[in-house]
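Structure (tokenized):
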């Protein structure tokens, strides 16, 4: 009974003294005030690492023929006991995978890095051959 009376008093107080939400919103400034110029904020680079760096992978020889650099293709097949199977071969953290180094093995992905690029490999979502069984 006391809780109900207290709730009624609170509700009455809010109704009596509470402001309409539209009134509160109109009191807010429309433009954000900052001591830092907007151009400075917009030109600041993101602190997040860029995982995929697009580069022009072509060179021209003396005849003007465009030569394409070979882009390494990786497929994550399995992760088990701190090792990752990439393109059919098992690797541990710190080992070289092509021109990359295996930096981290997560539950469902691996992180590769070299001097120029970083890659995250995840399992192919369309692979119906993968089954996960938990203890018997």
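Design, position by position:
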């Amino acid at each position: 009974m006391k809780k109900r009376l207290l709730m009624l008093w609170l509700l009455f107080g809010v109704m009596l003294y509470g402001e309409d939400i539209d009134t509160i919103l109109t009191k807010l400034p429309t433009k954000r005030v900052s001591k830092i110029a907007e151009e400075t904020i917009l030109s600041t680079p993101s602190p997040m690492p860029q995982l995929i760096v697009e580069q022009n992978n072509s060179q021209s020889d003396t005849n003007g023929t465009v030569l394409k650099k070979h882009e390494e293709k990786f497929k994550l097949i399995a992760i088990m006991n701190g090792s990752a199977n990439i393109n059919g071969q098992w690797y541990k953290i710190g080992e070289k995978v092509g021109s990359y180094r295996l930096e981290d093995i997560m539950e469902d992905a691996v992180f590769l890095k070299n001097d120029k690029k970083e890659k995250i490999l995840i399992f192919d979502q369309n692979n119906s051959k993968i089954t996960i069984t938990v203890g018997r």
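Reviewer-requested clarification: DSSP finds three helices and nine strands in the chain. Residues 52-56 have pLDDT under 50 and may be disordered.
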